């Protein structure tokens, strides 16, 4: 009698780097409590990335998605943020479907470099020059958050401002290691272009994850 083979469906296991309940620290949702799910894997390769430990998915164990959902529910949260790495390297349909069964708000932070999967209440698009967004994720993004490392990044930000929908929230965020050098430039830019807002990594000031 042939052995029964188990078929692992996409998204039933995910390379979990870490998960924790905290406050959102950046962009439009700053200060809102949420459960963070950080997934491994990213080939965008930003030189200033502060989560390089997440880049190699092979370093992070595949975890049953049901176990992640169980931990979410135990936390008592009403919102989940999926981040990375680049979370869209993975099929997130199953994760979101199960979270939605429990009326959990779903948020994603992504460069958009991979095809969109999942069901999202809030999409924060943070495009990167190394691997620009694919498809038309900018048409459905709720928030555009552009990291500013150098003054030429303002032009990159404007390129995507022209693509996102009119009610998309627009943020410029100083790259952390160059904060003191670039924040004066961002302040002056926003004064001249008030459709932008400044995003600060407030979690680093609060010393929380």
Structure report:
- By secondary structure, this protein is of the alpha/beta class.
- The chain has one domain (13-206): Aldolase class I (TIM Barrel).
- The protein has five helices and nine strands.
- Strand 7, helix 3 (153-161) and strand 8 (169-174) form a beta-alpha-beta unit.
- The radius of gyration is 18 Å and the shape is globular.
- It starts with 12 loop residues before the first strand and ends with a helix.
- Mean pLDDT is 92; it is low at 1-7.
Query: Which parts are unreliable, with pLDDT below 50 for 5 consecutive residues or more?
Result: 1-7
The radius of gyration computed from the alpha-carbon positions, rounded to a whole number of angstroms, is 18 Å
- Level of helix content? 10-25%
Query: For the record, what CATH class applies?
Result: Alpha Beta
**How confident is the prediction overall: mean pLDDT?**
92
As for the CATH topology, it is TIM Barrel
Domain module count: 1
Strand content: 15-25%
Shape descriptor reads: globular
| Termini gap | 52 Å
CATH superfamily: Aldolase class I
DSSP summary, beta strand count: 9
């Amino acid at each position: 009698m042939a052995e029964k083979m188990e078929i692992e469906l996409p998204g039933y296991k995910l390379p979990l780097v870490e998960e924790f309940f905290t406050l959102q620290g950046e962009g439009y949702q700053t200060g809102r409590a949420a459960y963070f799910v950080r997934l491994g894997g990213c080939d965008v390769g930003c030189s200033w990335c502060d989560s390089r430990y997440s880049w190699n998915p092979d370093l992070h164990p595949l975890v049953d998605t049901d176990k992640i959902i169980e931990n979410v529910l135990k936390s008592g949260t009403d919102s989940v943020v999926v981040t990375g790495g680049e979370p869209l390297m993975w099929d997130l349909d199953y994760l979101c479907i199960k979270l939605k069964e429990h009326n959990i708000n779903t948020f994603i932070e992504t460069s958009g470099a991979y095809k969109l999967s999942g069901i999202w209440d809030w999409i924060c698009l943070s495009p990167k020059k190394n691997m620009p967004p694919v498809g038309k994720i900018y048409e459905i993004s709720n928030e555009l958050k552009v990291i500013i490392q150098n003054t030429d990044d303002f032009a990159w930000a404007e390129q995507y401002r022209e693509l996102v929908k009119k009610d998309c929230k627009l943020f410029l965020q100083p790259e952390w290691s160059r904060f003191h050098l670039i924040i004066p430039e961002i302040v002056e830019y926003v004064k001249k272009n008030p459709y932008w807002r400044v995003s600060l990594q407030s979690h680093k000031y609060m010393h929380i994850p």
